[in-house]
Amino acid sequence: MQYEELLELVKSRRTIRAIKPDPLPDEMIGKLLEMARWAPTGFNMQPMEFLVVKDLELRKAIKEIVDDYKNSDFFALEATREKWQGSPWTIETHGRWDCPLAPVNILILGDTRRRVGLPMVARYSQQKGDSIFESSLSNAFLYMWLAAHSLGLAAQPVSAVKYPKVLGLVKHLLNLPDFVEIYDIFLIGRSAMEGGPSPKLMRHLDEMTHHDRARDDEFLSEEELRKQIMKLRAGNVARHVEADRVADQLGMAK
Ligand SMILES: Cc1cc2nc3c(=O)[nH]c(=O)nc-3n(C[C@H](O)[C@H](O)[C@H](O)COP(=O)(O)O)c2cc1C
User: Are 187 and 20 in contact (CB under 8 A)?
Assistant: First the structure.
């Protein structure tokens, strides 16, 4: 594959939150896992493990845990936003959270015991050790996402699994031992989005690239930064709304 093809794949990958419940063939799931297996990891420690959840009752239970959390703690904390961020999301303005019941949930896990394989400097720095471990899992996550996209599949991460209540309940549900960390959950299936996602707002390359010694004025001011955050966030909200609209039209779980 040449650069242009790879760039096109990367540019067209999107988060698709409207997912059809139709099952996926095992062969396709195998391809997602195989791609993620090849992700580069710090010192080649390969801390990742994958948990493929197809069982309907388990998928429903995960959905319930996540939706409950989102409809309570998420909105409760949103109310504490600073003024500059505009009105907080509420159930009234945004609607109740309702994750799609995708045909497969793939959990990207990390076996923390593998950290003993890191060089001693990383063992004595919790921060460095964490960073290598998390980045390695993040690579597997991204490889899987790109694989899903290349196969024409929709994928949505469910990072809420990082919050203690969700994490504890999901780990208990799935009988995961203490030494296993959940990096993220992917909901994967066929897209239910008509016409594809809206264009993506991206920062300009010039604004994020710096050369040699940085000048004092080449980073955005606090005010510019906040304005930009609001713009990027508005784009993201628009996509949530679109997913809701499509899912409603199809009369299916989002
Ligand atoms: C590390 C990470 C975690 C994310 N977690 C969630 C999530 O929990 N729920 C969700 O709907 N989207 C999640 N997303 C999707 C982002 O919101 C999305 O990638 C971003 O808005 C850019 O849009 P795009 O993926 O369509 O390019 C996550 C993305 C990343 C990279």
Answer: no
How remote is the CA of residue 105 from the centroid of ligand 1, in Å? 16
Distance 220 CA to ligand 1 centre (A): 24
| Residue 133: CA count within 13 A, CB half-sphere | 25
**Location of structure tokens 């679109």:** 242
Looking at every residue in the chain, the average pLDDT score rounds to 91
pLDDT at 251 over 70: no
Q: Which of 10, 14, 15 to mutate to test the pocket of ligand 1 (most atoms within 8 A of CB)?
A: 15
Domain boundaries, the chain: 3-250
Span 15-47, pLDDT tens digits: 999 999 999 999 999 999 999 999 999 999 999
As a whole number, mean pLDDT of residues 95-112 equals 96
Task: For tokens 């139709």, name the residue.
Answer: 22
**210 C-alpha vs ligand 1 centroid, how far in Å?**
26
The arithmetic mean of pLDDT across residues 43-67, rounded, is: 98
Kindly state if the Cβ of 114 falls inside 6 Å of ligand 1.
no
- 3-state secondary structure at position 189: strand
């391809």: which residue's tokens?
A: 31
Distance CA 49, CA 108 (A): 6
Whether domain 3-250 has CATH 2.60.40.1820: no
